[in-house]
Each structure stands twice: as structure tokens, then as C-alpha cells.
Design goal:
Blueprint: E1 3-5, E2 7-9, E3 11-17, E4 22-27, E5 37-42, E6 45-49, H1 50-53, E7 61-64, E8 68-74, E9 79-85, E10 92-93, E11 96-97, E12 100-108, E13 123-131, E14 142-145, E15 149-156, E16 160-165
Parallel strand pairs: 1-14, 3-9, 7-10, 12-16
Antiparallel strand pairs: 2-13, 3-6, 4-5, 6-11, 7-8, 8-9, 12-13, 14-15, 15-16
């Protein structure tokens, strides 16, 4: 078991019209309450994964995971969305707020292909943002980035965290 945090690879900025500013308390583990909680300050600006953003059409409603539903009004450099309530919808997207930190997740792949030839691109780097609570982690800590996988904090600087993907 590991503590859970949000990570957004390839972040795309959205602004949510009608979103209330609030402090959100989330569990650090969905089933084990002994892990405690973390707090996120929520306003009207969010970052969502680019791959998920590409699948959303204007007018479509989706849920910001563990928060609320929004409808995409227009796609642009900073896309505009609109708050539409709390009912459950099928499409749920990971998110972080502007209170986040740069993050890289090193994802090792097979070093050689099926024929034994070395693969130059055997290390993928997922660049993005993770929630600010991750700055409280210590190097070596194992966590789970929700909807991404288990990772170990490898290096910590003032401006960026670097994790190694475990599975």
C-alpha cells in the first residue's frame, strides 16, 4: 500500500467558469484511513492531461476526479469550461491546480528488442505537474500517482521532483 497523489503528464490549462474557491480534503489512500489526508486549495484554474483533453469535445461534460463536473465550452490555449454540478458522470479526469510543482517520471522500458538490439529510447520521461503535497515526500518514498502507477521519489529540488516508475 502507498499514499496516493495526483500527477498530470503533459498538462493542459483549463479555466472553470462558476467554480467556487475552496479547500478540498482528500484521503491519502482510498481504503486505509491510517494514511491520513491531504488538502488542496481549489480555485477556477486547473491542469488536466493532454491525452485526456484531446478526447473531449466542446459541449461534453466530464468530472474532475474527486471534485465536480464541468462542461467544455471551447478549446483554446486556456480552454474555458463551466461548472455543472456534482452528479456522477462516466468520464473522470486527473487534475492539479496552479499550486503544483514540476515533475518528471522516468519510465524504463526494455533495453533490447526481441532480436537483442539495444533500444536507444528505452527510457521514457513523462513530464508534467504533481500536487504540491508531494514536496513533503522524502527521497526514496514510494507513492501511487492515481491513474498512472506506483513511483519512487528519486530526486528532489526546489523547482522539480523526479520519480522512477515502478509498475
Amino acid at each position: 500500500m502507498a499514499r496516493h497523489y495526483f500527477f498530470v503528464p503533459g498538462p493542459v490549462k483549463i479555466k472553470v467558469k462558476g467554480a467556487e474557491k475552496k479547500k478540498l480534503t482528500l484521503k491519502l489512500h482510498p481504503k486505509n484511513s491510517s494514511f491520513g489526508t491531504r488538502e488542496l486549495n481549489v480555485n477556477d484554474e486547473f491542469f488536466i492531461p493532454e491525452k485526456d483533453f484531446e478526447t473531449i469535445s466542446e459541449g461534453e461534460v466530464f468530472r474532475l476526479k474527486d471534485l465536480y463536473n464541468v462542461k467544455l465550452i471551447n478549446k483554446s490555449k486556456t480552454s474555458l469550461c463551466e461548472f455543472v454540478g456534482d452528479g456522477l458522470v462516466e468520464k473522470k479526469l486527473q487534475w492539479v491546480t496552479k499550486d503544483s510543482i514540476k515533475c518528471e517520471v522516468l519510465v524504463p522500458k526494455d533495453l533490447v528488442d526481441d532480436t537483442g538490439i539495444y533500444r536507444e529510447n528505452s527510457l521514457e520521461i513523462a513530464k508534467g505537474l504533481c500536487e504540491l503535497a508531494c514536496t513533503n515526500l522524502k527521497e526514496g518514498d514510494m507513492i501511487q500517482f492515481e491513474r498512472f502507477g506506483f513511483c519512487r521519489l528519486d530526486k528532489k529540488t526546489k523547482t522539480k521532483l523526479i520519480f522512477i516508475f515502478s509498475c
